[in-house]
């Protein structure tokens, strides 16, 4: 997740169980914004970004005809984008930094640089998808949100 609201940038990664219908992105967003002392706009953006990513993965699974019955994902490329099931929520010492939220205060120059970088990234993705044949799976790379 990469969300910028005003001059604050939140970067975090976590694992979400697509099969758990009791998990709510809104409840998760409420908890993380309370823990980090972030504004309500972050809460909305976090929940929206989680819902977008869930929708992209579910759409990808639907396109390939996945039965949603616990069977392994048949498509090799799509299967590679899913993490294996976890047995414990503990992380090793070298993984802690990757799974810790980072909250950065950005200058105007850094915000402009991020905006230009996102525009270049969007153009690159459009070029890469032109001319592809066969079944087109959605881009599963998380979108960056800037408000």
From TrEMBL:
InterPro entries: SNF5 (IPR006939). It is found in: Nucleus. Pfam families: SNF5. Residues 123-133 have a biased composition (Basic residues). It comes from the Eukaryota. Residues 115-147 are annotated as: Disordered. Its main location: nucleus. GO terms for cellular component: nuclear chromosome. Residues 138-147 have a biased composition (Basic and acidic residues). GO terms for biological process: chromatin remodeling. Keywords: Nucleus, Transcription, Transcription regulation. Belongs to the SNF5 family. This is Uncharacterized protein. It comes from Tilletia laevis.
């Amino acid at each position: 997740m990469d969300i910028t609201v005003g001059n604050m940038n939140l970067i975090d990664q976590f694992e979400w169980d697509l099969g758990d219908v009791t998990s709510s992105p809104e409840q998760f967003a409420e908890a993380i914004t309370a823990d980090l002392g972030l504004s309500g706009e972050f809460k909305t953006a976090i929940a929206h970004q989680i819902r977008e990513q869930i929708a992209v993965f579910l759409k990808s699974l639907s396109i390939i005809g996945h039965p949603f019955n616990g069977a392994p994902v048949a498509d090799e490329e799509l299967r590679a984008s899913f993490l294996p099931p976890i047995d414990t929520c503990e992380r090793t010492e070298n993984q802690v930094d990757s799974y810790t939220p980072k909250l950065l205060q950005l200058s105007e120059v850094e915000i402009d640089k991020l905006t230009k970088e996102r525009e270049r990234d969007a153009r690159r993705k459009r070029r890469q998808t032109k001319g592809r044949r066969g079944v087109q799976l959605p881009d599963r790379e998380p979108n960056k949100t800037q408000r």
